[in-house]
Amino acid sequence: MIICSHCQAQQLEGTIFCTVCGASLLSARSQRQTTASLNRAAEVAQQIEDEVTILPAPTHEVAGPALALVVISSGRRIELPVAPELIIGRKDQQRNFFPDVDFSLDGGYDAGVSRRHARIICENGSYAIEDLGSSNGTFLNRQRVPPSQPMPLRHGDEVQFGMLLVRFELKL
Amino acid sequence: MSNVNLRITASRSILPATSEPQVLYALVELTAQSSAAKMPRLPLNLCLVIDRSSSMRGERLQQVKQAAMQILDLLGDNESFALVTFNDRAEVVVPAQLARARAEIKRQIGAIDAAGGTEMATGLALGLQELQRAMMPRAVHRLLLLTDGRTYGDESRCVEIARRAQSRGIGITALGIGSEWNEDLLETIAARENSRTHYITSAAEITKIFTAEVERMHSIFAQDVQARLALQPQSLVRSLDRVRPFIGPLPVIEESDFVWTAALGDWPEQDVQALLLEIVVPPLPQGRHTIMRLSIRYRTPGSDSVIQSQEQTLSVVLRDPDEVGDDVDPTVKHWLERLVAYRLQASAWQAAEEGKLEEATRRLQMAGTRLFEAGQVELARAVQEEATRLLRSGQASAEGRKRIKYGTRGLIGREEQS
Lengths: 172, 418
What we know:
Chain A is mainly beta. Chain A is built from two helices and 13 strands. Residues about 30-65 of chain A have low confidence and may be disordered. Chain B is α/β, with parallel strands linked by helices. Chain B is globular, with a radius of gyration of 23 Å. Mean pLDDT of chain B is about 90; it is low at about 415-418.
């Protein structure tokens, strides 16, 4: 027997979505490995790069594109997996919402980052940023990104989620 | 000859051996083996039942007429065609006949004009009559209904006529266009395994959807498809739903102890069929276990009364709970997530009707979350919008409701990528 953390209903073992409220019953760990691994990767990166405040993107020997978001205020570097879509926002445990990139540890709430703020889309090796109707907007190189209209993203672009400034890095 | 591939994927292939019952989800995919030898095809007995109320005037009716003429060209000389229109009353425009005097039939179609109101039941009744007049014992019988408006007072007669037709092997395709029609009614009319409904968002799609539907009917290679699920003692089938080509519940019956059956209807070759099962597995000792034997039985057009069948089993391994991770199969999870979104929105509309707006909003929001997670971003956004609208104004928009109802089922043309 498991208890849904969202609505407290009793559910049989093995249930994936609560039959009463529809919330996901997979543990946060297995449900959104990306968030956990991102934060872990970021912590490691932070330890290495702590003294380097403004950051030359580290050279990667690995094959395939290396994708990262760098939070300018803290220097935190978030390595991104290659995926067709990466949701950017703030996690909300109560609603069981875990974005791929979670800015809650970067002062995301105070900076006006929406829970579901924007997404990075990868199509045929090129990247784009799309605002998902966020409350405080997404800006690409200081230009407003209109909601639901993806704008191409290039290496070195500055992206602002609400007030939170981030740099997009792409090494092919 | 076996024309069908059966594949069963479980949400987990290794289960913990616990003392409690547990849920296992299984995705059953049925594909027709690409026909090296062309499968025999049944002739079509088709009747179009077209709403010609004044709101159809202009592009909609123009498109419908063009679509009807194009359908006529798709039919062979030994197939039957009829056309009935309805507004305040119903009229047989093209009586059931073999698709031969094409120029004359097209002239009759061309003369249809739009006026008056919407009274659907008489139109359906006349359509059914035309299909029965054609007297084709071995054929695919289909009534194709298109409406853009609400019919008032004769809803229950519409459903009654639809059931009568369906019980006689006549399938119904119910198409709605615009934002005024009654989606509850069309869904009810088409809620049988040999029927379907679809939402046409713009007049420009009419021809495409009409002709696609006729092509589907032409490719039916199996009829009366039945699924039989034999389970371990003490197991249960908790639910059975179709998830492809579109999402919808399938009535499933426990025919004898631990054996369930369900009717799947006709099967066009071009459709991949997928079903999602929720099974409750009883406590079992460690080791390999056969959870379910699935057999699919169907008739093929060429082989009259011969019943073909195909069987597949689902096995899992039970192990010490400490050795079992909690990974689930991503494909099974994807379809389950979309099914859950569909169920959530359906219960949201029900809650809204009962005046429980907060409950309805919560359910819609959760449906939105599920859709986002399943990658259906456009639809998720539409759901969130309606949730907000519902909470603020106490009412969802007619168009938003249709978009969500049909969208979550995969029944709006464009959103069918998965």
